[in-house]
Amino acid sequence: QVQLVESGGGLVQAGGSLRLSCAAAGRTFSTYHMGWFRQAPGKEREFVAHISWNGGTTYYADSAKGRFTISRDNAKNTVYLQMNSLKPEDTAVYYCAADRSLVRVTAAVEYDYWGQGTQVAVSS
């Protein structure tokens, strides 16, 4: 089992940057694949980015490609989401998620463990 806590959200102007962090409690973090999702008001939770257990594989939603970078530091039990060139449509609550076995890395239902989320607001 793993407990996840996100941080790093905030209010930023369009074109700005934020780095989200997701700290995991537990000794087996390095065995989990990790994902970032987001949910805007009135919308369904959507996939943003994924990273494999050892960081060897990453995958991004089209909306994140070229602007966001997911990374992890297994020694620090932390996964990151660097977000650049932010747009107002990136405004959402961002969640990190973990699972040991994934078939569809973009599907929220596949992830067993979730953090509480961190709010990102981008002003125009």
Q: How do the helices and strands line up, and which of them pair or pack?
A:
Layout: E1 3-7, E2 10-13, E3 18-25, E4 33-39, E5 46-51, E6 58-60, E7 68-73, E8 78-83, E9 92-99, E10 113-114, E11 118-123
Parallel strand pairs: 2-11
Antiparallel strand pairs: 1-3, 3-8, 4-5, 4-9, 5-6, 7-8, 9-10, 9-11
Summarize the main sheet. Answer: 7 strands, mixed
* Coarse shape: globular
Indicate the proportion of strand residues: over 45%
Helix content: under 10%
Distance between the termini: 40 Å
Unreliable stretches: none
Rg of Cα set? 13 Å
What labels describe this entry?
mainly beta, single chain, seven-stranded mixed β-sheet, 124 residues
Task: Please describe what this structure looks like.
- The chain has strands spanning 3-7, 10-13, 18-25, 33-39, 46-51, 58-60, 68-73, 78-83, 92-99, 113-114, 118-123.
- The protein is mostly beta strands and 124 residues long.
- The strands form two sheets. Strands 2, 4, 5, 6, 9, 10 and 11 form a seven-stranded mixed β-sheet that branches. A four-stranded antiparallel β-sheet has the order 1-3-8-7, with no helix packed on it.
- The termini are far apart.
Quick synopsis:
The protein is mainly β.
